[in-house]
């Protein structure tokens, strides 16, 4: 049975955003369903989010070619996944068609990944507005701030929670991953054979690789015996940093859609083996405030 997200709304105001990685949502639906029930599960998930945030604008981010671009920098990037996103788009035309019949915004960074599209949308379209990202992806934690939180299956992640859980503030998440690597994306350690606590200290003092030498030469750095070993890894650190960093200034395409209840009802009859009431349809469409 699909794990449920925290069901307590963090905010409840008009003209604020909920942002989801559409590929990730579909992956979860596929992972807990038999093939013939995937769309039914997907509809259930989307309806749950609509109920959770009835007054929010919903944004769905699509994959571009970003995985291929990052693989040019780090060939093993995401090769540990069963279905690497760069090999086959996971989001089907049917899912997109479903969303196009609801009150939704679809955003894609053609040359980026869905995470890049999310980062760019927040900076370019939602600056200063309240945003909740629904995701388990720690890469997105670098976007946390006063107006941006992340909702996981178990908790709300804020900037304070980021520091408590990862040991760094959001602005330093990219540097942390550059130093420690990220097994979930098959990114190796930037600096091997040095304790995590030491590298976290460095990540908290340097937001990017260009600041490393100054930090290592400053009185704040308390591990001078390790300086040469870290400097020797500068190339790997920079490589990892460029792979992990989200591209907030990347070009994005944004398309807004309005609900069409009649067409949505007919479409759901075609793709789902479950019957839905008119109230269910309106909730899914984003036209029913609950």
Put the structure in a nutshell.
The protein has 13 helices and seven strands. The chain has helices spanning 22-31, 38-52, 66-73, 93-100, 114-124, 159-166, 173-180, 196-205, 212-216, 227-231, 234-244, 261-271, 278-285; strands spanning 17-21, 57-62, 104-108, 131-134, 148-151, 156-157, 253-257. 38% of the residues are buried.
Widest β-sheet, arrangement of strands = 6-5-4-1-2-3-7
Question: What is the 3D form?
Answer: elongated
For the report, how would you describe the main beta sheet? 7 strands, mixed
SS elements, strand count:
7
| Helical residues, percent | 40-55%
Give the SSE order as H and E letters: EHHEHHEHEEEHHHHHHEHH
Quote the distance from N terminus to C terminus: 25 Å
Uncertain stretches: 1-14, 84-89
Total tally of structural domains: 2
Structural class of the secondary structure composition? alpha/beta
Rg from C-alpha positions? 21 Å
What is the fourth-level CATH superfamily of the largest domain?
Answer: 5'-nuclease
* Number of H/I helices: 13
Structure description:
With 290 residues, this protein is α/β, with parallel strands linked by helices. It folds into two domains: 17-163 and 247-285, Rossmann fold (3-Layer(aba) Sandwich); 170-244, DNA polymerase, domain 1, CATH 1.10.150. Helices cover 41% and strands 11% of the residues. The chain has helices spanning 22-31, 38-52, 66-73, 93-100, 114-124, 159-166, 173-180, 196-205, 212-216, 227-231, 234-244, 261-271, 278-285; strands at residues 17-21, 57-62, 104-108, 131-134, 148-151, 156-157, 253-257. A seven-stranded mixed beta sheet has the order 6-5-4-1-2-3-7. The longest helix is centred in the N-terminal third of the chain and has 15 residues, at 38-52.
């Amino acid at each position: 049975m699909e794990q449920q997200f925290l069901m307590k709304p963090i905010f409840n105001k008009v003209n604020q955003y909920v942002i989801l990685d559409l590929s990730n949502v579909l992956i979860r639906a596929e992972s807990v369903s038999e093939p013939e029930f995937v769309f039914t599960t997907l509809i259930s998930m989307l309806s749950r989010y609509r109920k959770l945030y009835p007054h929010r604008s919903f944004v769905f981010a699509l994959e571009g070619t970003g995985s291929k671009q990052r693989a040019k920098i780090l060939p093993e990037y995401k090769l540990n996944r069963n279905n690497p996103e760069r090999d086959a788009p996971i989001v089907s035309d049917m899912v997109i068609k479903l969303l196009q019949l609801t009150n939704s915004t679809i955003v894609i960074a053609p040359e980026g990944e869905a995470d890049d599209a999310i980062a760019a949308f927040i900076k370019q379209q939602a600056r200063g507005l309240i945003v909740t990202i629904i995701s388990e992806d720690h890469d997105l934690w670098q976007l946390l701030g006063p107006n941006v939180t992340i909702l996981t299956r178990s908790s709300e992640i804020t900037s304070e929670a980021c520091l408590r859980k990862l040991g760094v503030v959001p602005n330093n998440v990219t540097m942390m991953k550059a130093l420690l690597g990220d097994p979930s994306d098959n990114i190796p350690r930037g600096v091997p054979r040095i304790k995590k606590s030491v590298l976290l200290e460095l990540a908290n003092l340097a937001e990017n690789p260009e600041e490393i030498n100054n930090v290592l030469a400053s009185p704040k750095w308390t591990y001078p015996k390790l300086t040469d070993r870290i400097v020797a890894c500068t190339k790997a650190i920079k490589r990892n940093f460029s792979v992990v960093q989200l591209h907030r200034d990347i070009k994005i395409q944004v398309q807004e859609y309005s609900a069409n209840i009649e067409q949505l009802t007919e479409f759901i009859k075609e793709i789902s083996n479950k019957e839905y009431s008119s109230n269910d349809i309106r909730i899914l469409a984003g036209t029913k405030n609950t």
